[in-house]
Design goal:
Length: 264
């Protein structure tokens, strides 16, 4: 039977065996990664892991509710000292997605930025809508996006990953396809949703053991089977996470944000 958890949660999950669907569910904040969203996402991934272990799930679909897939880390939480923890949690989630027995399909509409782009890069197959935007606009905050490189480099190319994580520029759906970050681009949101539904249904009809073996060997070929790759990628981002420069920059951003909201 299909199963859905509390729809007021920051992340919700729905099972329709053998497909699980995780929905980032904080649209008013563009699904920014907060303490609550991380808690809920980790809990949902626990449930998907249990379902794959039991043989009742071998496809995971991830999408966002509202105008964005995921706009990155919550700024307020970072200003309060959460950045090192958030980087560690993001790195662990990317590793879990890459090592999950299920095939992970991302349905991306709207921005998938910074941590959101890292999440996308850890998925196996990515489809993008016409308003999708991928990138790492984090250098202005003194944050290194290196935590994403463990999965971004093998999913694109060293040159494309280098340009994307150093330039601060965004890729649209077509450009994401060109560099290999996305498998397909679609002309509107309905077409995106329909294509991902067809893909997940097709994957759901396939043999789970065959898909798992194929994914596992791909991980061996690109090096992401090695947990050390994720550890080193995370360490590069953590190196600047508690710097004075970061704190000065995030404080300046929050001051501007409060002024714009009329809170002085």
């Amino acid at each position: 039977m299909p199963e859905t958890n509390d729809t007021s949660a920051s992340v919700v999950i729905h099972f329709d065996a053998p497909i699980a669907t995780i929905v980032l569910n904080d649209p008013d904040r563009r699904n920014a990664m907060s303490h609550a969203l991380f808690d809920d996402l980790e809990g949902c991934l626990d449930r998907v892991g249990a379902a794959t272990d039991s043989g009742s799930c071998h496809v995971l679909r991830i999408r966002g509710e509202g105008p964005a897939f995921c706009a990155g880390f919550d700024l307020g939480a970072m200003a309060d000292g959460a950045l090192p923890s958030f980087l560690e949690r993001l790195g662990a989630i990317c590793r879990r997605l890459r090592h999950l027995d299920a095939v992970v399909v991302a349905e991306v509409h709207g921005p998938a930025l910074a941590g959101g782009c890292a999440l996308v890069s850890a998925c196996d197959i990515v489809h993008a809508g016409p308003d999708a935007a991928f990138g790492y606009p984090v250098h202005r905050l003194g944050i290194s996006p290196a935590v994403s490189l463990a999965t971004l480099v093998p999913g694109t190319s060293p040159g494309a990953a280098r340009a994307l994580t150093l330039s601060g520029e965004f890729l649209d759906a077509e450009a994401a396809v060109d560099v290999g970050l996305a498998a397909a681009a679609h002309p509107d949101r309905d077409a995106l949703e329909n294509a991902v539904t067809i893909l997940c249904d097709r994957l759901g009809a396939m043999d789970a053991a065959t898909l798992h073996a194929t994914k596992r060997f791909q991980n061996e070929l690109d090096g992401t089977v090695d947990p050390g790759v994720f550890t080193k990628s995370l360490a590069a981002s953590l190196a600047t996470a508690d710097s004075e420069e970061f704190q000065l920059r995030i404080d300046a951003v929050m001051t501007k944000k409060r002024a714009a909201e009329g809170r002085g």
